[in-house]
Design a protein that fits this description.
The complex is a heterodimer of chains A (about 475) and B (about 290). With about 475 residues, chain A is α+β, with helices and mostly antiparallel strands. Chain A contains 11 helices and 25 strands. Chain A has 3 domains: about 70 residues, no CATH class; about 220 residues, P-loop containing nucleotide triphosphate hydrolases (Rossmann fold, 3-Layer(aba) Sandwich), CATH 3.40.50.300; about 150 residues, Beta Barrel (OB fold (Dihydrolipoamide Acetyltransferase, E2P)). In chain A, helix 4 packs across helix 5, helix 4 runs parallel beside helix 6 and helix 5 packs across helix 6. The two termini of chain A are about 20 Å apart. Helices cover about 75% and strands about 0% of the residues of chain B. Chain B is globular and about 70 Å long. The chains are: A alpha+beta (about 475), B mainly alpha (about 290).
Chain lengths: ~475, ~290
Amino acid sequence: MTFLAPKDGLSIACDNFVILEDSKPAALTHEFIRFRHGPAVAAEDAKHTKIRDRSRLRLLVPRPYGHYIGQSHSVRRLRRRPRAPHAVSDFIQFEDVSRHYGSVRAVDKVSLGIGKGEFFSLLGPSGCGKTTLLRMLAGFERPDTGRVLLDGQDITDLPPERRKVNTIFQNYALFPHLSVRQNIAFGPTVARRPRREVDDEVEKMLALIQMRDHAEKRIDQISGGQKQRVAIARALINKPAVLLLDEPLAALDLKLRQRMLIELDMVHDQVGITFIFVTHDQGEAMSLADRVAVMNEGRIEQLGRPVEIYEAPQTSFVSAFIGDSNFFEGVVAEVVDAEHVRLSIDSFQDLYAFNDKGLHQGERVYLSVRPEKIRISRDRPLEGRDHNTTRAVVDDVIYLGTHTRFWLRAGEYRLAVEQQHNRFVLDDLPIRWQDEVWLQWHVDDGYMLERYAERDEALMSFPPQRVGEGDAPAESPADGRG
Amino acid sequence: MAEARGLLEPRHEPWITLPSFVWLIVLFTVPAAIVFAIAFKPSDPYGGIGAGWTLQTLRSLGDPNYPAILWRTIWLSVATTALCLVLATPTAYFMARTPERWRHLLLLAIIVPFWTSFLVRIFAWKVVLHPEGLLKRALVALHVVPPEASLLYNAGAVLLVLVYTELPFAILPIYAAAEKFDFKLLEAARDLGAGPLRTFWTVFLPGIRRGLLTATLVTLIPALGSYVVPDLVGGPTSEMLGNKIAQRTFSDRNLPHASALSALLALAVLVPSAAAIALERGRRARQRAEAA
């Protein structure tokens, strides 16, 4: 699979790779990319994953996760970058907004700025306040304190019908007593626009969503995907300044969800208005959004581009909620140089980490390493300053199609390691239960967290577990990276 | 949904519905047919039914008193139904939006009056509306009504008590529909620019259409046939068809005449219900045809 993007030369997406490349695409093969260039730096700019080829066929490739970047310096750049400021843009502004239900703080002093035309995602587990925040913008909830501004105008007290904001509801909330056509015409009809004009607009919308043949059908006669399209048309016909999407894909099955993701992205490209997308599915948020706000317990834990959220999580919550992580707890043993620290972690010798936090000797740290960043091998790998190398014993091997997950025992820690499948791996002598293996990860791939909360461990599909605390953890039914 | 098994299999359906079918035939259809038949019999002077067949009774329905009574019966019933719907819809809306644990309490509050005998409740109204009653005195004191006005024994009193009697029957089906209504639709309508009132008319009312239809039928039909209420709180100027039927049966002992009136009333009920059902069917058939 090779796709091109006309930005910064050419971007080539190859299987899971997203790579900057300036050669002719025809000459590029899978192996070529891998061996000639190694994992490259393209993933840094989130836009590169919106890929289109010359025949205008648009395709979406999963947003790159960190291991595609490998040992590039982009990870360091990501982590060194000053934290994304909370109000980089001012088209939509939440100013110190709070909403309490009894003693529950649904939204707790949130300040957030969203830019015009941005595809913004609010991501978090259920009950984190993301939907409440969205409903405040739609006008269905009033904040207890704080203000909501749209294009400089204070809309905190405006009722929903007077806001230039439209919503795609979770189950679409299409009117069952009206036909597809009447549903789409609802907004302009209510606005008392001339009948002719409304008919024309509806006709255009029907064409846009390719539902002309189904215009007279009732809502219960169309499929889930068609419902979503009708919901989009019904909202967009009002020419809103902002489109709010409240978990619009939750009701669809997996394959349809993937198709609808692409359609949403295309619609966003076409209409160019601000999209705010609420979801608990990190895959959806990562693959579509320009920026993501990860929410937890009414607060924004981290705001940034998908790659920042994944590669440089600031808190244990973000680290655990997005993807999976191995956590280590220890102390800074030595500040080696400006860039590195040596950590003292029980049962490991000399682990090094990239010191983007400017830690000093003796400070307590939590180190997190994503399972897919750790390489596993039977043979002793070359050791270098750039890498942490350690021995481990295989406890369990779980084949998961695209990758294999290994549960390993290293000292008193139980670790998860994921190995992507390709024909080289499959040809190798397989690693089995009870094998003694070598683990290695690049110093940059372990990162230290700014905030760590023990209870966030409950979110992890494999909580950090030390050997002896219990039996091998049960495999989570859903793969964390969805 | 679970597969229908054993007794509930579709092929057993006729057997399962047989008892209720027989019940309806024996106790409803046959008596109704007998009533219709008696309308074509002559009366005999001893209050029985004469031999042979005649159209005489039907001709006697041309009595100049009847159009006025029929008209009054219809307008009182329609007004009762309309008032019930107007009062029941917001009540049902409010109930459906109440948190679940309070809902049962509200439902109970609507059903509780049924624990008291219907007659007792009507007599209670007589006490309330009595010329010497508290309500009358209070209204006179407030100069709302002149002292000589009567709250009782007129069409107004009949209407009031009819609405009181039928209201729970209107609330229950509307509530049942409102409870199933997806209130997100109201948000969607507001989101699309409709004000609260418009949302109520264009989304909520169509959404509970079936409840409204049922409520209309279950209030209109009993109201048309009402007899006790106009008999107790109404006067000679607010008689309804039901009173006339009773009069013909008990005072005049003219069963054929009473039967003819009953048949007239039955038609007055059947025709609008059949029309409503046909309309609904036609609407759905049209929708299906449009969609196909």
